[in-house]
Amino acid sequence: xxxxxxxxxxxxxxxxxxILKWLQDEFDYEVICYCADLGQAEELDGxxxxxxxxxxxxxxxxxxxxxxxxxxxxxxxxxxxxxxxxYLLGTSLARPLIAKRLVDVARKEGAHAVxxxxxxKGNDQVRFELGCWALxxxxxIIAPWKMDEWKLTSREKMIDYAKKHGIDVPVTxxxxxxMDRNLLHISFEGGIxxxxxxxPDESMFVLSCSPEKAPDKPTSVVISFHNGDPVAIDGKKMxxxxxxxxxxxxxxxxxxxxxxxVENRYIGMKSRxxxxxxxGTILKAAHRGIEQITMDKxxxxxxxxxxxxxxxxxxxxxxxxxxxxxxxxxxxxxxxGVTGDVRVKLYKGNCMVTGRKAxxxxxxxxxxxxxxxxxxxQKDAAGFIRLNALRLKVRAQVKx
Length: 400
Description:
Elements: E1 2-9, H1 14-27, E2 30-37, H2 47-53, E3 58-63, H3 65-77, H4 90-109, E4 111-115, H5 124-135, E5 140-142, H6 155-164, E6 178-181, E7 186-189, E8 219-226, E9 229-233, E10 236-237, H7 240-253, E11 258-264, E12 270-276, H8 278-294, H9 297-315, H10 322-334, E13 340-347, E14 350-357, H11 365-368, H12 380-399
Parallel strand pairs: 1-2, 1-4, 2-3, 4-5
Antiparallel strand pairs: 6-7, 7-12, 8-9, 8-13, 9-10, 11-12, 13-14
Helix pairs in contact: 1-6, 3-4, 3-7, 4-5, 7-8, 9-10
């Protein structure tokens, strides 16, 4: 194992560009950059040249889009997942896969350490480090933001450092908010967004148009599911990544998936995040639609009770924990038979389920009808209600 070789999680943004140079200057490390292509699109253009120009001895750029959606996004969305009711975990789900591949490359290269650019205030530090140590307990982790030697303690100082060393960065002092993009979402944090009264500027958004500028004609789309996972759009089978990309395109064109949240970070502070998750928003609504006719009532309610715990585990970096794996087993079992088609209407920021069908459905119109039926004896409800009212009547008598 080479004690002078480090694998850096590298995006080409301000933090990791500066850290790449800083690790060389401060500690004389050989730095190998690692970048996971999770759907950053044009953000990856020129990344290899930039890394090597800044001093990286090598860079890995891996296309992990299919693995990301298949093995991380879809399992979470089987849980109908949302952190604190609104956040669809776009960043949270990407980090464990990056951690997994970081330590894989560290083993391959014989590096003694991995490094990341997450700050000591955020969630990503926890996600990266818990993920790395869960998979490679012996690995050393270098986190410059938490080191005494690190003096670049603001974005302004890092921008000045980058200019001094001839590093091109896509951030300016005038527009200092940070962005993180993958196939599931794009997030915006910091800078001008730290004032909670500042409405996000329309020019900031990438994946979606504003609902006000969305088409006046709605878009209808049919999503097919098999055992809880989407497999086709309008009858056309697609791979996980291609399917999510198509939903992003449809949702973005109709102003779907924008949220502005003040969330509770794992370390205790509140933080504002603005997110675009067009495809994920459609997927969540459609998945719930097919569950409504194919999933047992008590199984659904049990899964729904567990969902906040599952979401918190993912948000807080415990993807590789035994408790998340146990919950995943239960969730996956609950999804057997969640198979069928859902039609959704997309219109000016709204995603509305307008139709559901399944070959094996628990919905029986003969029972549910408000008309006359020969299946359900309504007089049975009288005794049922009396039994359930017993404790309420006793409590009221005791109060008197």
